[in-house]
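Quick start: read one record
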Amino acid sequence: MEQQNRQIPPTVYPESPGRQFWYVWSPLIVKIGIGLLVSLAVGTVFGIIYIFRHYGITQEVLNDSKQLEIISQRFLREYMDLTREMSLEYYKYAALIEGITALATIPVLCVMFHRDRVKERLRGFVPNKKAALWKYGAVIIMGAALCIGVNNLMILGNLSTMGEEYQEIMEILYSAPLAVQAASLVVLVPVCEEMVFRGLIFQRLRERTTFMQAAFHSALVFGLMHMNLVQMIYGFLLGLVFAYVYEKYGSVKAPVAAHMTANFVSVMGTHYQWFEWLLEEPLRIGGITVACAAAASTMFVLIQRIEERPETAENTDGEPV
């Protein structure tokens, strides 16, 4: 695996553990921080609107101190039940909130990404060659095949039914209108997550360590961020593949394309009940799973043949590699 990337590593000067930790993981901290701020802002606005509608608060009520006192007393009595109802209603908009969070985070990540590339050039770092656009077909096919194949394996192994939390999350995310799912889960979230975990975290780890170590740690955290066993396993496996794709194609656009494709298939498959259709016949789901494995393997071989070595690189003696 290590032979695939022969780029000359940049000079990395000794830093304190704290500075190294911040340098590598700050994109994730920024993503989490923006997510919390967006959730707080949206939750506050949503809560105010919900309370106003629930108690029928109008401008006239706001001007009437007695009515406000009565509503305040009711609110205190009904606080627990009202909070539970608000939470259930709020989670219906989870896909939309995910999209808003990604939209707010992407510009910040773009600035960080651009600064990293500038610093690399100043240090004399030679990046991998960017693969031709026509080669992205392999990434798209592999993303779709992996999505269907891994989901089928989890279904066949009853893994998807083991996590009650996973079932609840899927129902919440996929209960949103299809247009919202397409914008948020298929476009914005993959771009945001690939910028964080591959474009920034993986690449920063890659400067300091081997490909396997960088891929493993970035994929592990990517999986853990999904917060439930089923998605942790799924996210970890895809995270490893996305890191390899990023390494071979020399561009974050490659894992973004694969991630978008996987999420598109997942959204469409859930909306149109493709996976339920597969479960109707054991032979059907088994055959399609084998076909997906064959397609993903074939695409992997094609991707492996991509020459990612830098066009201009020099060894430590200043001679061309």
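The mean pLDDT is 87.
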